[in-house]
Design goal:
Elements (H helix, E strand, L loop, with lengths): L2 H23 L30 H8 L2 E8 L20 E6 L1 H7 L6 H6 L4 E5 L7 E3 L16 H4 E2 L2 E2 L10 E9 H4 L10 E2 L1 H11 L8 E5 L9 H5 L4 E2 L1 H10 L4 E4 L18 H8 L4 E3 L4 H5 L4 E6 L9 E3 L3 E5 L2
Parallel strand pairs: 7-9, 8-10, 9-11, 11-12
Antiparallel strand pairs: 1-15, 2-3, 4-12, 4-14, 5-6, 7-13, 13-15
């Protein structure tokens, strides 16, 4: 979308949140208790949340069912101008050359001489990007409530100038689990969900029924909206994307036991937010209250094309100490049914 459109959406989000805050602060407006972050059933020092559901036995079980054959790459490509929430201040992806063959001949940076530099071509590059750029996983410290994150860790105690000392991206282990694709777009009979479409619980139930699949505890569940078809047109990709509702997120985690959730968009949820009662964003619900990591910008088009709905999910993210997200390059391999 253009800058004005993107800014308009961000303004709408801020305005809606402000209204929600005002409502929550009105005397007698809400009868429910204020929402709080989740306390881990795995102990007071737990930093993994629902990733504790992954065990040696669960990894062995899924790998024993690998059918072999094609390996599906679930990562997007990184390129200058790629989609991002730039209006919110997120830095853009950049790549630049630090060394080129001709430049090395001219500069002779390590003093090996003109002849050596002419003979041996040398190229180097560097990149700069926001940690939530491209295919990535959100760490549990990404969203919180009242200065606290998952398991009650407080920002004033655990957040320094070098990042979080709790639940940083370096704590996310390599993930090997049963993966499930829920093709919501196909379930609605379309190639791509309409702009702003809010995926509800019933949409997920309908798609799973059509795919003849049932979710299990410990699954990595990936939602296809079809928006990835616009990935190489960043303005179109970012313009009012479809995404998840809170009741759909609850279905995935609380009802079905998902360990990690993800989607092919960059927001996972959709906007404007649903303001009902003691409102929390879907991100806050999943990360801070349920301890469920979120993956975004997951490339699901090839899985959907081949109707591979159940697979071994294998992925590892960069160990960025203290970060609230990290890039990853997950793969999928079909399982025997």
């Amino acid at each position: 979308m253009c800058c004005n459109q993107e800014s308009s959406i961000m303004f709408s989000i801020v305005r809606t949140l402000a209204i929600a805050t005002a409502i929550a602060g009105s005397a007698g407006a809400l009868a429910a208790e204020p929402p709080e972050v989740g306390k881990s059933p795995w102990g007071a020092e737990d930093q993994l949340g629902r990733l504790n559901l992954m065990t040696d036995a669960s990894r062995a079980a899924v790998l024993s069912r690998v059918a072999g054959g094609r390996v599906y790459d679930l990562s997007v490509e990184y390129f200058i101008g790629m989609p991002g929430w730039h209006a919110a201040g997120d830095p853009r992806y950049q790549i630049w050359m630090t060394h080129t063959p001709h430049g090395t001949v001219v500069d002779d940076p390590i003093g090996v001489g003109h002849a050596q530099n002419e003979h041996v071509s040398y190229t180097g590059s560097a990149v700069s990007m926001y940690t939530h750029t491209g295919t990535h996983i959100d760490a549990l410290n990404h969203f919180g409530l009242d200065g606290r994150i998952w398991n009650g860790f407080e920002a004033r105690e655990h957040l320094g100038d070098r990042g979080w000392r709790k639940t940083g991206a370096e704590t996310i282990p390599p993930i090997v689990a049963r993966g499930v694709l829920i093709d919501v777009a196909a379930g609605q009979g379309v190639d791509m969900l309409p702009p702003g479409y809010r995926v509800r619980r019933q949409d997920l139930v309908q798609a799973l029924r059509a795919q003849n699949l049932t979710l299990r505890q410990g699954d990595v569940v990936l939602i296809r909206t079809g928006r990835m078809k616009h990935y190489e047109q960043p303005q179109a990709f970012m313009d009012n994307p479809p995404g998840m509702s809170l009741d759909a997120a609850r279905f995935l985690v609380e009802e079905s036991g998902a360990m990690v959730v993800g989607a092919d968009n960059l927001s996972f949820e959709t906007f404007p937010p649903e303001v009902q009662g003691n409102y929390v964003p879907v991100h806050t619900y999943l990360l801070a209250q349920q301890g469920a990591p979120i993956m975004e910008l997951v490339q699901l088009e090839e899985l959907a094309r081949d109707r591979v709905y159940e697979f071994a999910f294998i992925g590892a993210s960069l160990k960025l100490k203290g970060a609230d997200a990290a890039p990853m390059r997950p793969i999928a391999i079909a399982l025997r049914r």
